[in-house]
Amino acid sequence: ESNGWLTEKEKLKTGAVVISNLMHRQGRFDEALKLAEKETATFGRMLRIGTALYFKGQYKLALNYFEEGLKLFRKDIGLRKGTFPAFYGVAHMLTILRLKEKDYLKTALKLAEETPDNPYAKIFEYLQSGIQYQLNNFLDANELLDETPNSPLEHIFYAAAHYWNSMVLPAHLPSILKNHLFNATKHGYHWVEMELSAMLSVFEKDPDIATEYAEATASLEEKLGCHSILHLFPRTEAWERSLEALLHLQAKKGKKTAAN
């Protein structure tokens, strides 16, 4: 209930946000796209179209909508930096990370760092952790995982960041993921179900059960036409990352010595 605080126009906007978020979590991406395309031209429409396109794997087109929507959004509220302080901003970052264009890690990191505080702040931090690990900033990557997750989405990205960063997931987390998976499956949140299955496929200790989760993930990916965030980043072991960082440092020292 709005208790009289929202105008009819604001109620429509709020309804569009709630419905689109619901459809995305249920994996109803085609329906979400068609619904968004019927809206009047606002930054909200462009964000919802961009998010639906991201889930459908049309990353380049999605990025165009996010960038144009961001221009309108910044103009509308006077924001100069960062991305959208909502799940649309998360989808915007994921799109950049999927496309892997020039300086994509630094671009996504800067957007996340400059985004105002919002209900998805923990997810932004978990994504930043994965990026920092890719940039060999291991201490920063670890510190960004200090915040404890609460919601199912937060648990998904928290678990994913541990996988990206080659870290051991806290022992109590798999049971929480399984509980979220039960509820997601029960209520038809198929995208959430897919992501939770993906996380459990790598953190379940029983190899046979882990295989079942992996098979469920593959089946849902095919059904929904999208890919889990589990393999968003190329995963390398910690010692390989350390070696890369050392070689990079030696190369920089070599260039500096040659210049002198």
Q: Into which percent range does the helicity of residues fall? A: over 70%
**Coarse morphology:** globular
What distance lies between the first and last C-alpha atoms, to the nearest angstrom?
A: 70 Å
**Rg over CA atoms:** 20 Å
What's the β-strand tally? Answer: 0
Element-by-element helix/strand order: HHHHHHHHHHHHH
Mean pLDDT: 89
Question: Uncertain spans, ≥5 residues at pLDDT below 50?
Answer: 1-12
Strand composition percent: under 5%
Major β-sheet annotation: none
How many DSSP helices?
13
Structural class: mainly alpha
Structure description:
By secondary structure, this protein is mostly helical. 71% of the residues lie in helices and 0% in strands. Residues 1-12 have low confidence and may be disordered.
Give a brief rundown of this model.
The protein has 13 helices and no strands.
